[in-house]
Amino acid sequence: MMSSRLRVAVVQFAPKLGQVQANIAKARELCNGLKPRSVDLLCFPEMFFSGYVFPDTATITPYLEHPHTGPTATFCAELARSLECFVTAGYPEKLEPHEHAPPLGGNSLSFHQPRIGANSAVMYDPTGERVGAYRKTNLYKLDLPWAIPGSGFTTMTLPHPLGPTTLAICNDLNVQDPAVWESLEEGPYELAQHCIRSGTRLLILLNAWLHPDEDGEVSDSDSADCTTSEHNEGTDDMEPSWEVIKYWAMRLNPLWATIQEATHENEKKPGIPNELLVLVCNRFGNEGGSRFAGSSVLMSLRRGSGRPRLLQMMGQREEGVGFWTANIPGR
């Protein structure tokens, strides 16, 4: 199968909650070393400029952004034009009034306010034109008081060298209600199966993923035996969180499971790529008592190989731009 080189960059640091302009200035500073046409794709994490931990609609309302003219859209469009590359970032989207949803209700006061936003992502092309948008489908508990879910996963057909690209956000990796986890073999694996059906060659995940010490949802991570040059659990903050990376890989199990483990829906089919790249762009830092895991990573997943392959990664609290090059599989 023919392949081509893809140059990607992920921006990882600890944004300050509610300090939008300061966070944008920091991101701009970190990107100063990038030269025009030196990278094909530049990624920023989930809700990167606003911060993530907002307990209710009232507290996030001042930070909701217009999808075309807000701070994230303006910054990404300008940076895409300047660097002549694709740029994607997550942001809290301000919905039109007709899209507002009623409160979820329940025991918590935070669920008694209308939901007027969406946890969204946007992508701009090298000319600064908006070419893609996505709303998080599988909302995390911190999204529920203020955000409505998206309508489902989508895949964009982007120019060479990107090709069929799926853009997703953080908790989209996990099982979607009302489904429940069955087993390692059966899943369900909604995002992975979408990538198979859509012929995705590049999966981008924009995350604000919590450190496993903060969140009880990271589990069964030992099932993903990742191939890398150095694989020992480290306590140094400049080391990645292997538990988190293994969990991300485990949630994409159908994309690398052995044939014996694969279900009938996961079997190789003509015309569907057997390999794809997964780019996870995460943040670190602390907000509202929550600690984020960093550990941004680039993985290559080949169907039937029996294990994911880690290509590049960042530490749990490593600040900077990860600039990585990899082969992206051809059609």
Automatic annotation (TrEMBL):
GO terms under biological process: protein catabolic process
Highest taxon of source: Eukaryota
Keywords: Hydrolase
Keyword match Hydrolase: yes
Domain CN hydrolase: 6-330
UniProt GO MF annotations: protein-N-terminal asparagine amidohydrolase activity; protein-N-terminal glutamine amidohydrolase activity
Region entry Disordered, spans: 216-237
UniProt keyword Ubl conjugation present: no
One Pfam assignment: CN_hydrolase
InterPro entries assigned: C-N_Hydrolase, C-N_Hydrolase_sf, Nta1
Protein name: Carbon-nitrogen hydrolase
Organism in which the protein naturally occurs: Suillus discolor
